[in-house]
């Protein structure tokens, strides 16, 4: 089959690789109909996530048709399914607590040492990401093997086209959980750093949850315009002192909740960020956490900090004093996708949530390297890329 494979920093290729096979009775094989490039895929593209090997098949946002099943799978051939990017067994302590992204059993034992050393316990399995998370092949391919297919995939009705449900795989539940982690109350003002796909879905979710005011922060005009159309106020950090603006917009006490939808590759020319960029380029200190540091300083005393943005390693110049002295509540983590898919599918069907407004480009799988390049280098206009295996390549 054809698949998008990683070969080094900013080197991804579409190649012919072995077809996936059923290796466990709970497996299913899915023929991919739509898959997307995620902002967190760019961390792999930029070479800042450890544990990726040449030839690894990328992609953790995908859906398709079930074409084969193991004897213990609950799926049936021909069903259309969206597959959560988090792989979960459904039976361990964390899965039974609906903490699916902390599953004890989805990361093979032989892959657990590095993440256990970094984080204290091993990470769960994720599709198409790193050998820290199991080294599972991803869905930017014609076919994918889905472990624990009796737990993760959600069957979607035929009347909903792919682009309405594809993002149930990751960014929609991630944006929703980000807003949920901000514990939004009716009078709250919520500031969201980053108006990429996760940030936009966090803004939309915060508005649906009843926030009185939502503020989107970015520097790309088109992405800010998408946030404004959702109903957010906007702040361009290239033109405005963000902390001063947020103080003014919150009556001088700071915003009630902040959401960091940027993660480990912050932009900007703040001194700490420039130092982090230099360190990241030479492999010292993996995370550029400037946006998160700004968010912690901007939130009010007793405020809430939600972190859906991906971080992989360490950072320094951390505002530990502000975090403690201000009495902040901080929540983050990989998304427990399986917890949210059923309810969010219902909100898509009844029109509460729109999932299509941010798609800017649709490309054949064969054009995936161009999709990665443009999604990285032209972020203002390339807001979301959907890849279609079998789609004809245009000139």
List keywords for this structure.
single chain, 395 residues, alpha/beta, seven-stranded mixed beta sheet, six-stranded parallel beta sheet
Protein model, in words:
This protein is globular. The longest helix has 13 residues, at 337-349. It is built from 13 helices and 17 strands. It has 395 residues and is α/β, with parallel strands linked by helices. The two termini are 23 Å apart.
Strand runs, count: 17
Biggest sheet character:
7 strands, mixed
How big a fraction of the residues is strand? 15-25%
Gap between N and C termini, in Å? 23 Å
Task: Note poorly predicted spans.
Answer: none
Rounded mean pLDDT is 93
Detail the topology: elements first, then pairings.
Elements lengths: L1 E7 L2 E6 L11 E10 L3 H5 L15 E9 L10 E4 L2 E2 L5 H4 L16 H7 L5 E2 L16 E4 L7 E2 L6 H4 L5 H11 L7 E5 L3 H12 L4 E6 L2 H10 L2 E4 L5 H8 L5 E6 L10 H11 L8 H9 E9 L12 H6 L3 E4 L4 H13 L11 E4 L3 H10 L7 E4 L7
Parallel strand pairs: 10-11, 10-13, 11-12, 13-14, 14-15, 16-17
Antiparallel strand pairs: 1-2, 3-4, 3-8, 3-17, 4-5, 5-9, 6-7
Helix pairs in contact: 5-6, 5-12, 6-7
């Amino acid at each position: 089959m054809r698949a998008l494979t990683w070969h080094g920093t900013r080197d991804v290729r579409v190649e012919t690789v072995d077809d996936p096979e059923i290796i466990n009775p709970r497996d299913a094989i899915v023929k991919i109909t739509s898959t997307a490039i995620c902002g967190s895929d760019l961390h792999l593209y930029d070479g800042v996530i450890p544990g990726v090997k040449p030839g690894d098949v990328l992609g953790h946002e995908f859906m398709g048709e079930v074409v084969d099943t193991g004897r213990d799978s609950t799926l049936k051939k021909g069903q259309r399914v969206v597959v959560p990017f988090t792989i979960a067994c459904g039976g361990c302590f964390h899965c039974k607590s609906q903490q699916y992204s902390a599953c004890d059993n989805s990361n093979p034992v032989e892959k657990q040492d590095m993440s256990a050393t970094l984080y204290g316990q091993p990470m769960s399995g994720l599709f198409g990401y790193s050998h820290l998370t199991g080294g599972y092949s991803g869905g930017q391919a014609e076919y994918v093997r889905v472990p624990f297919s009796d737990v993760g995939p959600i069957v979607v009705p035929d009347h909903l086209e792919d682009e309405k449900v594809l993002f149930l795989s990751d960014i929609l539940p991630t944006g929703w959980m980000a807003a949920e982690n901000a514990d939004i109350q009716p009078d709250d003002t919520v500031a969201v750093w980053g108006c990429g796909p996760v940030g936009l879905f966090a803004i939309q979710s915060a508005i649906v949850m009843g926030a009185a005011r939502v503020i989107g922060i970015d520097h790309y005009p088109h992405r800010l315009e998408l946030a404004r159309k959702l109903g957010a106020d906007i702040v361009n950090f290239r033109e405005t002192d963000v902390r001063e603006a947020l103080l003014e917009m919150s009556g001088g006490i700071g915003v009630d909740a902040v959401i960091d939808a940027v993660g480990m590759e912050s932009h900007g020319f703040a001194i700490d960020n420039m130092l982090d960029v230099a360190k990241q380029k030479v492999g010292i200190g993996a995370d550029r956490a400037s946006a998160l540091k700004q968010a912690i300083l901007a939130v009010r005393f007793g405020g809430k900090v939600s972190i859906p943005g991906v971080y992989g390693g360490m950072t320094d110049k951390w505002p530990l004093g502000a975090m403690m002295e201000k009495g902040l509540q901080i929540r983050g983590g990989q998304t427990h996708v399986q917890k949210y898919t059923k309810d969010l599918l219902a909100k898509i069907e009844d029109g509460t949530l729109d999932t299509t407004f941010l798609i800017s480009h649709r490309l054949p799988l064969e054009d995936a390297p161009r999709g990665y390049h443009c999604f990285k280098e032209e972020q203002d206009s390339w807001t979301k890329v959907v890849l279609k295996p079998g789609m004809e390549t245009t000139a």
